[in-house]
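WARN retry 2 of 3 for item q-0093 after timeout on previous attempt; input resubmitted unchanged.
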Amino acid sequence: MTSPPAIVILGVGALDTARRVQALYHGAKVHGLQGRVSEADVAYAELGEHLRELYASGTPIVALCAAGIVIRCVAPLLSNKGAEPPVLAVAEDGSAVVPLLGGLSGVNVMAREIATALDVPPAITTSGELRFGACVLNPPEGYALASLDQGKRFVSDLLAGEATRIEGDAPWLDDVQLPRADDARRTIRVTPLAWSGATDELVIHPRSVVVVVDANVTGDALHERLLEAARAQGLAAPSLAVLLAPASRLGDPALREAADALQVALRFAADSDGASNAADMLRQTLRVPHAPFDAGTSIAFAAAHGPLDPATVGRARGKLSVIGLGPGDASLMAPAARAALTQATDILGYETYVKMAGPFRTDQRVHGTDNREEMQRARHAFELASAGRHVAMVSSGDPGVFAMAAAVLEALDEAQADAHYATWSAVELEIVPGVSAAFATAAQAGAPLGHDFCVLSLSDNLKPWDVIETRLRHAAEADLVMAFYNPISRARPWQLDKALDIVRDFRAPSTVVVLGRDIGRPGATLKTTTLAELKSGDVDMRTMVIVGSSATRAFRAAEDGREWVYTPRWYE
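OK item q-0093 returned
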């Protein structure tokens, strides 16, 4: 299982069982139907569509409902048995655990884990697992089948009475009740060498091979050249685990593309001085017992004795992910931001936002700082990332809106003048968008940003107040909807009133104003008022203020009386 499962429930009656299942898997979320399960981690609107989205994304599914419902929901997507995620149905009261799909992706392992936690027997029906006690065609992480079709025929032969022998290192098969014989005609072969096509063997490849390239191996379609070189050595593509290159090529996109195409880790020789060719670099860098393959001076291979941990080969290219958590509700965090948090070795940010982003694994380092240390935080992030770590820089909302993305880029820009730039510029930098406070508040109110708008910070910590006043006048005169960040604080108690005085010179007293406090967080409040009625006492630092244009309207829905605010897409 490559990602934590989605635990999907339809009602509160299944919540206790769902939480027991959730405790088994770090990062797992309970998905609840909107309007029925307010305590769920993630809300969804319609079961069938939600299950299909999860299945299509490869997310393991534990659905606490009838097995037939799950089958009918995902049936239109069933095609490739070898690529489907685990899908299980679990009774709401925990009395039954039924693996439905994903026999080759560990569904029966999950079924046993969940059944043990719920103290019930799993309803496993797979013939091979019932006979042998494990799925031979689902080797553990670090191994791959040479051919699924051949594997099915091989297991069918064993079920029909054939015996087998094992060649190579396969410790997970020690406790599997396979019919064995030293002189068996059938062989389970664990090897990095390519399968010959023989029908009397099941070949399993350990991901144990390092391919190393020197500074001269460049150009397009690099992964094809590496595959060709591997084939020339008799090596199977699934046995490749690591692509190693000299540190001078840290930022080379061709290497990243090749590693992605080969589905291997990309690592770099920390110091290639003294290495005259690829084989020398490999000998200096690979820190586990291995067997070299002769492949010339520019490309070399070595096979470890078992599945290879990439951490034993050189070091990674550092990565800095600048992410936005959104307004606070976990369901509003972008999936890419959640993935960056999961993959990160280090998490940096203002202490409050770091706590919002958690919990974290024990192997992740957390660096919380004061909210006024943006530049020091950005430089610290680059120092960590340039040492090969994956750093997640945390902001609330969107990182590019009055947040850390600008500080990170400023730090990188300033570093061009000193020695830091060479290492910092080699860091893989990504900025992951998030739902800003302005957008979250606008969505709660309706669509006040439905036409031209601007976003202004009323804080004069980083710009003079007279600049703020000038921009306010221009925005108000232009009849733009305005969203105010940092509207007021204990150190700036007068500035909101001053800003409103400026706006009132251009806007009617009846202009609609939306106040959203802690939208997306516990205790959130939303209020609609007018420019005439708005007072600074209605606002604090955690309030988003949206001042409408002359066209912005507010009305109450006839059915439920809810007030909606919107700015039409046209102007009179």
